């Protein structure tokens, strides 16, 4: 019997802060065993992080903000797939700062000195990966993935938020061989595993493509496609559409296109 894997892919948290206290707080709240933490000091560095890797959430230190701080906060509107949190002491004089953060689509204010102990509980559940995995926790009925192996595999894939996952990595997590996994997954006419992996990644690509701050090359890069051409080929093969059209498609739209004759490849 194959049990659904308990493994959850580490999420990537980017923190934009110059103060030592804020950076130390981030290191304590997001340990390496649970998160990949990237510390930045400027808005330019924060934006660069979004273009180099799949960022799940961002924290911006708005204590004594300067123009560059507000440039960093403004990135929340460019990359809405990743929730932005503002770190502030929230003094009585900070009402204007809080209002400006709210107007800039900041997901939440984290009160320094009050929320320090629960910061690690506030941010991870709202990350891109957590929301992606939660929304797709059970395989859509249209895919016909009802067996235990199917469900366990699907949940392992969506837990990675669209990141590249090797077949042998999935097999090891489920306690089976790669060959058994590939054969058993597609038995009985089910979609084969490689196509399902591509579908999950493409659904993540479609969500990221809705970010105003991303173009197709950015989406390909952060999801670890070999190139923009690789993403284009996958999009055509799985959904019969160009990457430029992904932003207009919902997960249900991609699934509908996928089940129309695109569920099988030459190898399992």
Which short descriptors sum up this protein?
alpha/beta, single chain, 47% helix, 268 residues
What separation lies between the terminal Cα atoms?
A: 21 Å
Q: Roughly what is the average pLDDT, rounded to an integer?
A: 91
What fraction, in percent, of the residue positions are helical?
40-55%
Kindly provide the radius of gyration, computed on alpha-carbon positions and rounded to a whole number of angstroms: 20 Å
Strand content: 5-15%
Biggest β-sheet strands, sense, barrel: 5 strands, parallel
Order of helices and strands: EHEHEHEHEHHHHHHHHH
Any idea what the shape is? Answer: elongated
Give the spatial strand order of the biggest sheet: 2-1-3-4-5
Look at the helices and sheets and give the structural class. Answer: alpha/beta
Low-confidence stretches: none
The overall strand count is: 5
Number of helices in the DSSP assignment:
13
Give a topology summary.
Layout: E1 11-16, H1 20-29, E2 35-40, H2 43-52, E3 57-61, H3 67-78, E4 84-88, H4 95-103, E5 108-111, H5 119-122, H6 128-135, H7 148-158, H8 167-174, H9 178-186, H10 193-209, H11 216-222, H12 228-239, H13 251-258
Helix pairs in contact: 2-3, 7-8, 8-9, 10-12, 10-13
Describe the structure.
- The protein is of the alpha/beta class and 268 residues long.
- The chain has a five-stranded parallel beta sheet with strand order 2-1-3-4-5, with helices on both faces.
- Helix 2 runs parallel beside helix 3, helix 8 crosses helix 9 and helix 10 crosses helix 12.
- The longest helix is centred in the C-terminal third of the chain and has 17 residues.
- The chain starts with 10 loop residues before the first strand and ends in a 10-residue tail after the last helix.
């Amino acid at each position: 019997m194959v049990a659904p894997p308990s493994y959850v892919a580490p999420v990537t948290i980017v923190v934009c802060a110059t103060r030592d206290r804020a950076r130390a707080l981030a290191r304590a709240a997001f340990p390496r065993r649970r998160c990949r933490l990237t510390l930045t000091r400027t808005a330019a560095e924060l934006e660069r992080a979004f273009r180099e890797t799949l960022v799940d959430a961002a924290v911006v230190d708005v204590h004594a903000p300067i123009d560059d701080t507000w440039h960093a906060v403004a990135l929340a509107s460019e990359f809405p797939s990743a929730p932005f949190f503002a770190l502030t002491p929230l003094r009585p004089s900070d009402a204007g700062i809080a209002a400006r953060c709210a107007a800039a689509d900041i997901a939440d204010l984290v009160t320094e000195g009050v929320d320090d102990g629960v910061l690690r509980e506030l941010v991870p559940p709202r990350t891109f990966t957590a929301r992606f995995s939660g929304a797709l926790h059970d395989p859509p009925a249209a895919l016909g993935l009802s067996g235990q192996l199917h469900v366990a595999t699907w949940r392992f894939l969506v837990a990675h938020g669209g990141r590249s996952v090797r077949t042998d990595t999935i097999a090891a997590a489920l306690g089976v061989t790669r060959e058994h996994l590939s054969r058993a997954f597609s038995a009985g006419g089910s979609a084969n595993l490689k196509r399902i992996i591509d579908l999950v990644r493409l659904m993540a690509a479609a969500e990221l493509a809705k970010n105003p701050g991303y173009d197709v090359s950015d989406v390909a890069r952060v999801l670890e496609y070999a190139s923009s051409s690789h993403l284009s080929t996958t999009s055509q093969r799985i959904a019969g559409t160009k990457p430029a059209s992904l932003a207009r498609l919902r997960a249900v739209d991609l699934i509908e296109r996928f089940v129309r004759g695109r569920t099988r490849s030459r190898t399992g």
